[in-house]
Specification:
It is built from 5 helices and 5 strands; from the N terminus they run αβαβαβαβαβ. It has 110 residues and is α+β, with helices and mostly antiparallel strands. Strands 1-4-2-3-5 form a 5-stranded mixed sheet, sandwiched between helices.
């Protein structure tokens, strides 16, 4: 299943130490221009979604709304996560390719 591929890319990036999760850490990664991809769970609050839309638009970082907080948390080996940033270019591109195949999740920023 394609959704599993995306989650496994996120898991690989986490094992490589190239993801950050949590609102504060993801924002910091975007501001420092380390984030190559930001994923926010579809069940995040509207305030969180708006915040990430604004920051990712400003810094021109691809933003996708994908999965739920439990799936994202499981992918990075934690309880539940509403947001995460991938800081590794290759894995970010691979995940973006899968996301763009229409697997679920919605793109916000180019």
């Amino acid at each position: 299943m394609q959704k599993d591929k995306i989650l496994s890319y996120l898991g690989l990036a986490t094992k490589a130490g190239r993801t950050v999760s949590g609102e504060f850490c993801v924002e910091k990664s975007v501001r420092q221009k380390r984030a190559k991809l930001v994923i926010v769970s579809e069940d995040a609050s509207e305030a969180s979604k708006k915040n990430f839309r604004n920051i990712c638009t400003y810094y021109k970082v691809p933003l996708y709304f994908f999965g739920n907080r439990d799936e994202l948390g499981a992918a990075c080996g934690k309880e539940c996560r509403v947001s995460l940033a991938v800081e590794e270019e290759g894995l970010a591109k691979a995940a973006i390719r899968q996301l763009e195949l229409g697997i679920g999740g919605s793109k916000y920023v180019e």
